[in-house]
Amino acid sequence: MNHTAFFDLVKKGTIGDAYLMEGPEEYIKQQALERLKEKILPAGLEEMNLTELTDPDADALIAAAETLPFMGEKRLVVVKECNLLTSGKKAEDENKVKAITEYVGHISPSTCLIFYVKGKADGRKKLYTLLKKKNAIVDFSPMSDAECAAWAAKTMQRMGKQLSRDCAEKLVFTVGRDAALLKQEMEKLASYLTDRDTVTDADIDAVCTRSSEYTVFQMVDAQVAGNNQQAFSLLRDVLRGGEDRIMVLAMLLRQYRILYHMRCMLDERTPQQSQAQLLGIPPFAVGRTQQQAKRFEKERLKAAYDMLLAYEQGIKSGRLPQEACAENALLKLEEILRGQST
Q1: Quick one: 182 exposed, middle or buried, by C-beta within 10 A (0-12, 13-18, 19+)?
Q2: 292 pLDDT exceeds 50?
Q3: Is the Cβ–Cβ distance between 218 and 234 less than 8 Å?
Q4: What's the pLDDT score for residue 303?
Q5: What separation in angstroms does the CA of 215 have from each of 204, 220, 241, 311, 314?
Q6: Above 60 in pLDDT, residue 33?
Q7: How far apart are CA 131 and CA 128, in angstroms?
Q8: Angle made by CA atoms 340, 279, 203, in degrees to the nearest 5
Q9: What angle is formed at CA 273 by the lines to CA 267 and CA 279, rounded to 5 degrees?
Q10: 3-state class of 81 per DSSP?
Q11: Closest Cα to residue 220, out of 235, 206, 209?
Q12: Which of 288, 339, 341, 301 lies closest to 309, judged by CA?
């Protein structure tokens, strides 16, 4: 199940006897565990009914899970980084595998057992297979743009602030989809608003730290508008922020691919409501992308995209040097866009 389904089950009080929490979205994963604690553990008696273990042996895990809850209906046992679920060179103890897998098949009804793994678990392991059969795996994969926007709006609402769908999409596009960073930026926004209730586009522009992807979007916006000086200034900003030049080149390639396909869609009169989905961009960015694409014929944008693609392939194959590749790409793009090269 995904994390949304898990939150819904916890809210309803429909809680199973075991779960494996896995996936790269660590902030939401931690929030899910905290929500489960709030639901299961009696207020004031949390420590009496919670056991947290790190890669325990079978006896320790079973002893904790078999301990009866104190003045409550359930006990919560959290097992972190169990080597029966993670990849590694450490050889598995077959006796441990057998004992724990047998126990997971017959957990005490007064216990909720959580296996909490940082990142992805190893799907080849016997314990993983058993938990999968129990439908006990909760997947914390990165959220989509739409999921992030919905989550951001709900989170701001809990802070007492209103975030429209368009503003939520802009916030995600500006900051990125990392939930921990988003929460940090939303806290900044809430403080910035003081007595105001509603977040605006201007608030996001004034307060929020921009992701590398958004900065590259602004860089392309400046370049197609003829402001190459601003484009290079934004490039320096993103490089000072620690972004790798090869990654910047990849993001430039993606942006010019989007511009070329947008230009084709405009020529073919593709309905605007379909453009965001086909291009993989948030709806609020469609208008701005249209304005960028309208500045050039599709042949020129195709030449810019082809140049970036060939440049990236040349670097990856070792035929071209990596040094200053992002700066060189901007210069080559300027030549193509301004008609000095085709």
Answers
A1: buried
A2: yes
A3: yes
A4: 94
A5: 14, 9, 11, 21, 25
A6: yes
A7: 5
A8: 90
A9: 65
A10: coil
A11: 235
A12: 301
